[in-house]
Amino acid sequence: MAYMTHDDIDTAIRKEMGMEQEEFVSAPEMIGYHNEALRKAQSIICRLYEDYFLKSSTITLVNGTSEYDLPSDIYVSKIRKIMYVKNSYIYPVRRLRGEFKFNDIEHINEFGDTNLYTYYLRNDSAAGVKLVLAPASYEDGTYIKIWYIRDINVIAGDSDISDTPEFMDYIMEFMRLKCRIKEHDQIAINASMASLNDLKVDMKETLVEKVPDYDNLIPPDRTFYDEMA
User: Fold this and answer.
1) Within 13 Å, how many C-alpha atoms sit on residue 76's CB side?
2) Does any domain span residue 1?
3) Would you say residue 68 lies in a domain?
4) Single residue among 105, 130, 150 that ends a domain in this structure
5) What predicted TM-score, i.e. pTM, was given to this entire model?
6) Fewest Cβ atoms closer than 10 Å to its Cβ: which of 7, 19, 215, 229?
7) Do 192 and 220 belong to one domain?
8) CA Rg, the chain, in Å?
9) DSSP states of 92-136 as a string?
């Protein structure tokens, strides 16, 4: 399916709604509506099929260093898997978790209990979440491969690409709804909300079919009207 730019979407919506010659909804407002629609879609997608936004990157190890930045485009620190890959030596980097996590961290750092890297996440400040290796790296090189869920492509200008081409009908209907809310056209608002709810159901059904575990039963979502109130 073809990707659309913000300008493509903005132009189509303004033409459909007879807004080509109006500035009632400004260009920055339409960008805001587009990003809000993408965030809504992203939330639905990541709950049902988070690998829709799956991406990989590498982390360069520095000898003696334990703390590393996560990829700049990671979505809410959603790590799917971390692998150590050095020639034919390959293993998953285990995340330290559970009630004994802190005991494990201290033992590994103090006594060198293992040569296999493990990791945990630490959020010291607004500088962001860090990935911390235990033990600290004992080598230099790009041997850590991280699989993670990336963030959506935020719309900043007309040429930016909308990030969910399969669900463009949902994105555009959400943007129409925001325009109609600003126009205070209650009949059009109600129609748009009903259409958006149907598209949301369609989106969920499409995403459930992508999950290869044959468990395609999902509970009905009744939060839509509350969210828009």
Assistant:
1) 7
2) no
3) yes
4) 150
5) 0.80
6) 229
7) yes
8) 23
9) E-EEP-STTHHHHHHHHHHH---SS-EEEEE--STT--EEEEESP
- Asked if 5 and 11 touch (Cβ cutoff 8 Å), the reply is no
List C-alpha distances in Å: 204 to 76, 82, 98, 153: 21, 28, 32, 21
Q: Are residues 17 and 83 in the same domain?
A: no
User: Which of 150, 179, 206 delimits the end of a domain?
Assistant: 150
DSSP label at residue 9: H
Task: Render pLDDT for 86-113 as a digit per residue (tens, 0 to 9).
Answer: 999 999 999 998 888 888 888 887 777 6
Helix/strand/coil for 20: coil
The neighbouring-strand residues paired with 23 are none
**Beta partners for 5?**
161
Cα(109)–Cα(126) distance, integer angstroms: 26
Contact 83, 92 (CB under 8 A): yes
CB 205 within 8 A of CB 51: no
What pLDDT, on the 0 to 100 scale, is given for residue 226?
46
